[in-house]
Amino acid sequence: AAETAASRRAGEEASLSAAIERSTAESARLAGEAEIARAAVPAADALAALATTLATARRDAETARAAVAAARSAADARARDIDSARRRLAAITGERAEWQRRRDASAGQQAELARRADAARAEQAALATRDEAIAAEIAGVASRTAAAEAARAAAADALARAEAALATLTAQARAADEAVAAAREARATARAEAEHQDAARLEVERLSGERFGCPPPVLPGRLGFSHEAGDPTALAAAHDALVEERERLGPVNLRAEIELGELEAQAKQTIAEKAELETAIARLRGSIGSLNREGRARLAAAFTAVNGHFRTLFTDLFGGGEAELALIESDDPLEAGLEIMAQPPGKKLQSLTLLSGGEQALTATALIFALFLANPAPICVLDEVDAPLDDANVERFCDLLDRMAADTATRFLIVTHNAVTMSRMHRLYGVTMGEPGVSQLVSVDLQAAERLLAAE
User: Fold this and answer.
1) In 251-356, which residue ranges form alpha helices assigned H by DSSP?
2) Residues 6+ away with beta carbon under 8 Å from 413
3) What are phi and psi of 186, to 5 degrees?
4) What pLDDT does residue 426 have?
5) What is the pLDDT of residue 276?
6) Which of 132, 155, 276, 310 is deepest in the core (most CB within 10 A)?
């Protein structure tokens, strides 16, 4: 079916190709006629007829072009169908080959199964002839099994009797072992006791010889007591108690009086040092108190001065608004923190952290100058202070510098890259490199330059 469809679509494709060629030839013919018509340039009375003919030819050409486009679309669709049919035909051919391979494999398996069936039938016939021999062998095995069972029962009875006798002998042997162990333990105890008594006797003889210069048997006659004076156990206990009491007393310290004198002298020195330390501590506490009072007074005065300068400078920099410094977290100025409250024009009072970057920069500049005004110096160096400011704020910053320079007689050295700031300075210093590797310091006096320009 696929081959038939492919053949049919091939014929249709050939016919469509012929139609396309005819349409192309017709278009070429019409184009040639149009060119001939243009070359002929007929008279004015024939132009209308030629125009009508030309319009008709154009419509025919458009119709032919549409037919060609439709034919090409149909040809493309049929070509795709032919390709699909060819791919399907190739797939069917592959499936046919696969099924052929499976059929060959099934034939091989069928032959193998037939061979196994023949082998099984032959084995079954051989086993059928062995049934009688197996039955006879089973009967012999049964008779031998009965005899073996009887022998096993007799052996089991003999084994039970032997185990009973073995248990009795084991119990007797265990009792004998226990008796021997008890006798050995008693003998070892007696021997140890005898050795202990011998050691105690030797120790007593040694002590008697060291302390009294005679052996123990002679002691009763020399010291006038009877060896039957009392219970030995009670005497030993009393002796041990006396020895323990003596040990608790310890040895006699012949330097006790000297050591007591030394300890008394050391105690007197310690008491004197303690008194000196207490006096020094009291004096230090008084000094610390006076320093704290003076520090609080100075800090309060400095805080008041800085706060006043800060209010004024903030108003000058922002062109209005309010700002103040506040001590927080403690009533003691020495332990309190500092809070900066600022209210730029047109905004409500808020903390410094809530302001924009430029506002924070101006507020910080006002605080720095407020601290500087509280204790002015002859020279003040400012490094890139105007970097975060825009041009309008830079102008305000420069105006503030002018007022401070006039009020405090301070010379300001400013490190900057801002053109506005540089234009407001009295003198400029820069470093240039006229030659590679050679730096040169250049200075410009802007006030002198202005005077020269005015003189010219």
Assistant:
1) 256-318
2) 379, 380, 381, 382
3) -65, -40
4) 84
5) 92
6) 310
Residue 227 confidence (pLDDT): 58
Supply the pLDDT for residue 38. 66
Q: Which two tokens stand for residue 264?
A: 């008394």
- Amino acid at site 336: A
Backbone angles phi, psi at 116, to 5 degrees: -65, -35
Tokens (6 digits) for 219: 């002691």
394: buried, middle or exposed (CB in 10 Å: 19+, 13-18, 0-12)?
buried
Indicate the pTM of the whole model: 0.39
Q: Which two tokens stand for residue 188?
A: 């070892």
What pLDDT is recorded for position 50?
66
Bridge partners of 327, per DSSP, are: 338
Say how many CA atoms lie within 13 Å of 51 toward its Cβ: 6
Angle at 141 between CA 139 and CA 142, to 5 degrees: 65
Beta 379-383 vs 411-415: how paired, if at all? parallel
CB within 8 Å of 431: residues ≥ 6 apart: 439, 440, 441, 442
DSSP 331-396: SSTTT-EEEEEEE-TTS--EEGGGS-HHHHHHHHHHHHHHHHHHS--SEEEEESTTTT--HHHHHH
Provide the pairing of β-strand 337-343 with 322-328.
antiparallel
pLDDT for res 46: 59
Q: Is 165 helix (H, G, I), strand (E, B) or coil?
A: helix
Two tokens at 92? 């069917």
Collect the ranges in the chain with pLDDT lower than 50: none
In the sheet that holds 322-328, the strands lie side by side as: 322-328, 337-343, 350-351
Please write the tens of the pLDDT for every residue from 331-386: 777 788 888 888 888 888 777 777 777 788 888 888 888 888 888 888 889 888 88
Phi, psi of 427 (to 5 degrees): -145, 140
Q: Are 5 and 85 a contacting pair, CB within 8 Å?
A: yes
Q: Identify the pLDDT of residue 256.
A: 78
- The alpha-carbon radius of gyration of the chain (Å, integer) is 66
Would the CA dihedral through 80, 81, 82, 83 be positive or negative? positive
DSSP state of 319: T
| Distance linking the first and last C-alpha atoms of the chain | 111
